[in-house]
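Exercise 7. Given the encoded structure of a 332-residue chain, write a plausible sequence.
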């Protein structure tokens, strides 16, 4: 025989259920906002760059923020020689996310390299500025003056070397014949310049780059303008359309600029992944990249340029579906 519950008990049960739903409200909202899926987790690798470059420091700080925002994600950082090397690591499965300059991505696609059609973007980050560094007493005043000199050009597979080759071409110099190219990265070039084993070096990075900043603090150096190459650079056609004329402000490297702004060339950095990457993970990482701008920007000043309004402009790559989902969710 089934006995009916008293009316008051039934009412209490209903009220208890309602209270439980109210308590669970935030958690339920989060689940539905993430498409009903649990927080992403597992080991994820981000390919960055050489230890003393901006990519590496940006990755270290982003890892700290992700530990808070996505606690189930174990982000590992791996070094590389730069943008082209980063893309190859990504496609080879040695990384799930990476940073690369827009010109390097375009070159990778133009060459039809492995997996180029599967590359997708999460966000446009900050701009890299091309920097030509020489000893303060050097006679070099433009790229044309590098003829017959020993020049640090960036490691093979780096975005630095990619741009350097194009700048030398714009200046009428042959990379292999008119200079002595020293194929090393920013982790080695400052020391070589200081020891007199280099006459100059090129670097492409956010402002300021710590390695250049530290060099200027104990060894007198000067930044050489690159603005005179802007028109000749763009005459090279499609492969150089991602470069823009820019100015390094006078306070970027106060000890190396004598209070003067320096004309140069800039190119955007992109956070890149593959089309197969999990959408929830990509959405979460994109959210952290945008939200961490101010905090990371206190140490990596270039990161202050990360902006929600420009982050979606990721030419030459389409947005990953997870990143697109994030931008739609925050659209006013």
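Solution.
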């Amino acid at each position: 025989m089934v006995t009916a519950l008293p009316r008051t008990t039934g009412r209490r049960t209903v009220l208890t259920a309602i209270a439980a739903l109210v308590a669970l409200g935030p958690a339920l909202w989060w689940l539905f906002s993430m498409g009903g899926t649990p927080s992403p987790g597992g080991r994820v690798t981000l390919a960055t760059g050489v230890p003393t470059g901006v990519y590496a420091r940006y990755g270290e700080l982003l890892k700290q923020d992700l530990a808070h925002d996505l606690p189930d994600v174990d982000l590992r950082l791996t070094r590389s020689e730069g943008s082209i090397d980063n893309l190859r690591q990504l496609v080879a499965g040695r990384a799930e996310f990476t940073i690369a300059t827009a010109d390097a991505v375009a070159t990778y696609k133009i060459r039809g390299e492995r997996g180029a059609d599967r590359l997708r973007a999460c966000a446009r980050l900050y701009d890299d500025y091309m920097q030509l560094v020489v000893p303060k007493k050097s006679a070099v005043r433009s790229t044309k003056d590098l003829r017959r000199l020993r020049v640090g050009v960036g490691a093979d597979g780096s975005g630095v070397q990619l741009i350097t080759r194009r700048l030398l071409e714009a200046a009428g110099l042959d990379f292999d014949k008119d200079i002595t190219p020293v194929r090393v990265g920013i982790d080695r070039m400052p020391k070589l310049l200081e020891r007199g084993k280099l006459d100059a070096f090129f670097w492409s990075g956010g402002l300021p780059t710590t390695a250049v900043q530290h060099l200027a603090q104990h060894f007198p150096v000067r930044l050489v303008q690159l603005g005179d190459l802007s028109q000749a650079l763009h005459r090279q056609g499609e492969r150089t359309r991602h470069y823009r004329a820019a100015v390094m402000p006078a306070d970027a490297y106060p000890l190396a600029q004598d209070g003067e702004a320096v004309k140069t060339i800039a190119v955007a950095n992109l956070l890149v992944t593959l089309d197969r990457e999990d959408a929830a993970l990509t959405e979460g990482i994109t959210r952290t990249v945008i939200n961490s701008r101010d905090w990371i920007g206190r140490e990596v000043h270039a990161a202050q340029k990360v902006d929600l309004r420009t982050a979606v402009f990721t030419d030459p790559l389409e947005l990953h579906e997870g990143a697109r989902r994030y931008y739609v969710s925050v659209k006013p």
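Remark. The chain has a mean pLDDT of 89. Students should compare their own answers with the one above.
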